[in-house]
Amino acid sequence: KERTFIAVKPDGVQRGLISDIIARFERRGYKLVGLKLLVPSKALANEHYADLSKKPFFAGLVDYMTNGKAPVIGMVWEGPAVIKQGRVMLGATDPTAAGPGTIRGDYCLTIGRNICHGSDSAESAEKEIGLWFGGKGEI
Ligand code: ATP
Q1: How far is the centre of ligand 1, averaged over its atoms, from the C-alpha of 92 (Å)?
Q2: One of 8, 30, 91, 117 is an active-site residue; which one?
Q3: DSSP label at 50?
Q4: Where, by residue number, is the active site (predicted)?
Q5: Alpha-carbon span 69 to 132, nearest angstrom
């Protein structure tokens, strides 16, 4: 069964959007198989965003995710095409390009505060689920 990692980032938690985001996935018919509230460690955030380590915004992004001003919700959702459809439901990474009806298209305008994260491939889903949920056994 296909699984993906979806996170509500600190801005989404701070703005009270956890329940809305969960509701959208539940209503679609996807199954919630893992959920945790945490302030990620620097090591976790560095590894999660390892592909972006050369980008100028990397340090700010990791600090934002880990500074503890608000926690992160990490979730694993399961169901048909959930990796691709999860990204569709989130909307474009840059919220100014995100369509109405998507989470980002409905709630934000700034790429650095785009509320949520979703795995972009089967490989990243497997890596991210292992990273955030401790790998095999836990879920
Ligand atoms: P995500 O992994 O969060 O779903 P993505 O895979 O679509 O997003 P990436 O290019 O991997 O997009 O960027 C990861 C995250 O880095 C973005 O969601 C955003 O929070 C942050 N980010 C990307 N570009 C910028 C930027 N120019 N300035 C600030 N933050 C950025």
Answers
A1: 10
A2: 117
A3: G
A4: 117 (pros-phosphohistidine intermediate)
A5: 19
Q: Cα(65)–Cα(106) distance, rounded to whole angstroms?
A: 22
The verdict on whether 117 is a catalytic residue reads: yes
Q: Which two tokens stand for residue 109?
A: 């305008």
Site to substitute for ligand 1 among 73, 93, 108, most atoms within 8 A of C-beta: 93
What does the alpha-carbon distance between residue 78 and residue 86 come to, in Å, rounded to a whole number?
10
Q: In whole angstroms, what is the distance from residue 3 CA to residue 31 CA?
A: 9
Q: Are the C-beta atoms of 108 and 21 separated by less than 8 Å?
A: no
**What does the pLDDT look like over 29-78, one tens digit per residue?**
999 999 999 999 999 999 999 999 999 999 999 999 999 999 999 999 99
* Residues within a 6 A CB radius of ligand 1: 52, 57, 61, 93, 111-112, 114, 117-118, 120
Q: How far apart are CA 70 and CA 125, in angstroms?
A: 24
14 close to 70: Cβ distance less than 8 angstroms: yes
* Atom 20 of ligand 1, residue of closest alpha carbon: 112
Regarding an ipTM greater than 0.90, the answer is yes
